[in-house]
Specification:
globular, binds zinc ion, binds 3-methyl-2-oxobutanoic acid, 8-stranded parallel β-barrel, 17 helices, 501 residues, 3-stranded antiparallel sheet, alpha/beta
Length: 501
């Protein structure tokens, strides 16, 4: 069986989705988890696009031990220099150059002739090769390119020294039969193709990104590009977790394998969703909360007789552990620590102490604490603490009929407690207004989602808040059995990131 290289572009193409940008520490956090997942290549950003991206690629390069770290680059020497600057300290650096090859892009965007495009491909790839050995070239909008010209572009990149050649479906226009045929055409006709890895990169405009990726694998693609949860421009990129499990589950069809530790899939997906503040649709394949639930009686009956009647993947394989274990306020620290380990978290002594305190607080409010609750505490822990930021101490709410709600909020900053009261159209708005009075400014609330972590009336509520100040957007997350407290915690977390990070 051939190995298929997993090229994760969550931190670059995924981040290009509006409102999904990540700061340096969030990217580093995510990159570490991607490495635990077993991604072979992590595209950490587009160094020339901003100094923030340059810094983020540098930080990921320093943080990652085994995976290749790539920076995207336009086919220009100035961009390539910056990409090199960003990845040069990675243990395994890569520069990823792209240039469009379709007539639409060449005429309207590049305003170049075909010969100029080929010259630029040769010049940029061979220039990058003087800096670094591992150079990838992508023919942007390949699926709308003329086949003969696409072939020339691929051959030019190979001649100039590219080690990987990518054939992207940039606008999500292709369909699986066509994709398979295109990859066969390139594989059978491009001179030197046996010297390079052929890569596939698909967007989901017609909902076919995963299907196109798998079709390309059938035709010989040995690098797959995609993002966790399928995040990305417009309708997004191909969802890596779906492709990885497709390859694993239908080994009989694809005859290839990946290096991914599939047990890390669920955690990776949850971490990303908490960082970018986007909840995962409940019916989403592999990681949606209903993906392994069986409601219909006839299905439940079948499952009791034998799991494989209605289940093609054991949820444990993707890291979803049955939430059968139940902890309560009499569970000792040791039991909680054991469960933290089972969930795959490695924490310091002081972090464990912190989580245990939060666990006891929760166990006082809820009769039982499930694994999902514990997971929410753990993910929230990473999110809420921002160095010297504001911390919620207390709050109170008063509502009466259709009168305006009143809220009182007390927070600390560097040890000093400050309180304020304010009114609002509802209890949440009043609480946010009271806090804004303390922070001394207003923030633009762009998105506010609230959902329960587990079932039941005493379930933990998880709030995801997206705020904007100037041109910056941040996402904050808060969990509590009280949804107003969860919203306030999320709001304060987002403000802390805006002001102090
Ligand atoms: O979709 C695309 O074509 C890309 C390239 C830059 C690889 O993201
Ligand atoms: Zn793309």
């Amino acid at each position: 069986m051939d190995k298929v290289i997993i090229f994760d572009t969550t931190l670059r193409d995924g981040e290009q989705a509006p409102g999904y940008s990540m700061n340096v520490s969030e990217k580093v956090n995510m990159a570490r988890q991607l490495e635990r997942l077993g991604a072979d290549v992590i595209e950490a950003g587009f160094a020339a696009s901003s100094t923030g991206d340059l810094e983020a690629v540098k930080a990921v390069s320093a943080a990652v031990d085994n995976a290749i770290v790539a920076s995207l680059s336009r086919a220009r020497r100035e961009d390539i220099d910056l990409a090199y600057e960003a990845v040069k300290d990675a243990k395994r650096p890569r520069i990823h150059i792209f240039l469009a090859t379709s007539p639409i892009h060449i005429k309207h965007k590049l305003k170049m002739t075909e010969n100029e495009v080929l010259e630029r491909i040769y010049d940029s790839v061979s220039y990058a090769k003087t800096l670094i050995d591992d150079v990838q070239f992508s023919c942007e909008d390949a699926t709308r390119s003329e086949r003969k010209f696409l072939l020339k572009a691929v051959e030019t990149a190979i001649e100039a020294g590219a080690k990987t050649v990518n054939i992207p479906d940039t606008v999500g226009y292709s369909e699986p039969g066509e994709t398979e045929d295109l990859f066969k055409y390139v594989k059978n006709n491009a001179k030197g193709i046996e010297r390079v890895i052929l890569s596939t990169h698909n967007h989901d405009d017609l909902g076919l990104a995963v299907a196109n990726t798998l079709a390309a694998v059938k035709a010989g693609a040995r690098q797959i590009e995609g993002t966790i949860n399928g995040i990305g421009e417009r309708a997004g990129n191909a969802a890596l977790e779906e492709i990885i499990m497709g390859i694993k589950t239908r080994r009989d069809l694809y005859g290839v394998y990946t290096n991914v530790n599939t047990k890390e899939i669920y955690r990776t997906s949850k971490l990303l969703s908490s960082i970018v503040g986007a909840s995962i649709p409940s019916n989403k394949a592999i990681v949606g909360r209903n993906a392994f639930k069986h409601e219909a009686g006839i299905h439940q009956h079948g499952m009791l007789a034998s799991r494989d009647t209605y289940e093609i993947i054991d949820p444990k394989e993707v890291g979803i552990v049955d939430s059968e274990i139940v902890l309560g306020k009499h569970s000792g620290r040791h039991a909680v620590e054991q469960e933290i380990n089972n969930l795959g978290y490695e924490l310091t002594e002081s972090d464990i102490k912190d989580v245990y305190e939060k666990f006891i607080e929760l166990a006082d409010k809820k009769k039982t604490v499930s694994q999902k609750d514990l997971e929410a505490i753990l993910t929230n822990k990473k999110k809420v603490t921002v160095g010297n930021g504001y911390r919620l101490v207390n709050y109170s709410i008063m509502t009466e009929g259709n009168k305006k709600a009143k809220a009182g909020v007390t927070v600390t900053r560097e040890g000093d407690a400050v309180s304020n009261t304010a009114e609002g159209d509802g209890p949440v708005a009043a609480a946010f207004n009271a806090f804004n009075g303390i922070a001394g400014r207003d923030f633009k609330l762009i998105d506010f989602q609230i959902q329960s972590v587990t079932e039941g009336e005493d379930a933990l509520g998880e709030a995801i808040i997206r705020l904007m100040a100037g041109t910056r957007t941040t996402v904050g997350r808060g969990v509590s059995t009280d949804i107003i407290e969860a919203a306030l915690l999320g709001y304060i977390n987002a403000v802390n990131k805006l002001i102090f990070m």
